[in-house]
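In the design runs reported in the main text, the only information available to the sequence generator was the tokenized backbone. The following block is the verbatim input for one such run; it is reproduced so that readers can re-run the procedure and compare outputs position by position.
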């Protein structure tokens, strides 16, 4: 079936799912395959649960006309997403970066939603499947779509950009994330910059942080851009006020109090302010959107439990974000502070060096307790207690609960350190 023919079906059945456990009524099920599953085998079940059509790529699973046979389901999903994007009237804003993508995406969405009918990537669906799924959520009345793009190797952002064809783009930063896949820090810069390359090739508009020397260098001479700076080096001055512990900023004599800890979150809020102003959202509406945003899903959350103030940032971690979180935590009020730090993944040959560097930063801080969890931290020379597994940590905390005060919990997604909350 051609993309156009499939698109005509989609227009009548605009709800799409790739999970047979979550089937929208009268929607379309795309039978994706993976290393350990074959979605074709669940196509009939999806139809029985209420889907109107199932897109498959193995003809032996075709039972009747409700089964749409294509050459490759994933390719069809991606092509349909781009086709829909080209036929919609929505403005597409894409963003990528090493750290802060999801928080930034949510802040931009919170601001632009004050004036426009806006959608944004759900959760962390920012890959070769999530991007087309986001594009297919655009409806006739959608005015702006904020599309997050994640990557762990070269050419991935290039491909995702070719799917979304964004009108505007922004890179949060370039940090020590996915070093193994990108081939070091220079590889990260090259890979993330693929978004700029796509935008520049189409003379599309770029938002940028003028205080980031890497972005400044990449965009020199490119005219179609709008930037922010703490000083006078860009189109819009946005001042950092403080972060004790929550970020407060100022724009055009208006102070905005975020619910985000640490100065590292300042650029994430600042770009949301800049985009709001670019799209003519009033400063009062921008303030309302940002101040109403509450971080969740283990990202930059601040919780209270049993006399402890918990800084929970356990959704993910890399050397850059870990260092920033520790520095911010060190500046928070309070005398009794502890840290629970979990392994950082996908660092390749740099793993031993980067984990030791983080352990050294923690060693120099005035902390009550230092808990390090995971195989990589277990191999470091640290001042603190090391645990090879989370089970070892939890057993210790059950017998020796943390004292009152504050605690930072941070580690890569695979460590799932939010489980620590059960033992505090």
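Verbatim output:
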């Amino acid at each position: 079936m051609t993309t156009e023919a499939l698109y005509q079906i989609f227009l009548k059945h605009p709800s799409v799912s790739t999970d047979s456990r979550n089937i929208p009524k009268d929607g379309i099920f795309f039978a994706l395959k993976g290393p350990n599953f074959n979605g074709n085998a669940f196509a009939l079940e999806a139809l029985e649960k209420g889907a109107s059509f199932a897109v498959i790529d193995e003809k032996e699973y075709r039972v009747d006309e409700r089964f749409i046979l294509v050459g490759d389901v994933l390719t069809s999903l991606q092509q349909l997403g781009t086709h829909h994007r080209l036929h919609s009237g929505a403005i597409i804003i894409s963003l990528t970066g090493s750290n802060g993508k999801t928080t930034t995406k949510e802040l931009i969405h919170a601001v632009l939603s004050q004036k426009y009918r806006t959608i944004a990537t759900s959760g962390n669906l920012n890959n070769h499947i999530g991007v087309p799924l986001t594009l297919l959520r655009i409806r006739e009345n959608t005015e702006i779509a904020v599309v997050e793009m994640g990557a762990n190797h070269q050419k991935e952002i290039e491909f995702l950009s070719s799917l979304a064809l964004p009108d505007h783009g922004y890179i949060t930063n370039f940090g020590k994330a996915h070093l193994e896949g990108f081939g070091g820090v220079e590889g990260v810069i090259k890979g993330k910059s693929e978004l700029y390359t796509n935008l520049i090739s189409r003379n599309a508009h770029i938002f940028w942080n003028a205080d980031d020397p890497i972005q400044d260098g990449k965009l020199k001479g490119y005219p179609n851009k709008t930037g922010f700076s703490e000083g006078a080096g860009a189109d819009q001055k946005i001042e950092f006020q403080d972060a004790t512990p929550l970020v407060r900023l100022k724009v055009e004599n208006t102070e905005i109090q975020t619910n985000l800890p640490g100065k590292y979150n300042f650029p994430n809020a600042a770009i949301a302010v800049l985009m709001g102003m670019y799209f003519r959202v009033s400063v009062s509406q921008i303030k309302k959107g940002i101040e109403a945003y509450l971080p969740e899903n283990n990202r930059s959350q601040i919780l209270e439990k049993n006399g402890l103030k918990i800084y929970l940032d356990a959704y993910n971690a890399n050397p850059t974000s870990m260092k920033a979180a520790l520095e911010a935590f060190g500046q928070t009020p309070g005398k009794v502070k502890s840290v629970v730090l979990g392994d950082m993944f996908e660092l390749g040959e740099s793993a031993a060096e980067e984990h030791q560097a983080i352990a050294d930063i923690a060693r120099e801080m005035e902390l009550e307790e230092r808990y390090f969890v995971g195989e990589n931290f277990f191999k470091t020379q640290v001042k603190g207690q090391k645990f090879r597994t989370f089970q070892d940590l939890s057993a210790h905390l059950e017998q020796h609960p943390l004292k009152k005060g504050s605690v930072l919990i941070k580690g890569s997604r695979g460590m799932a350190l939010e489980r620590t909350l059960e033992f505090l």
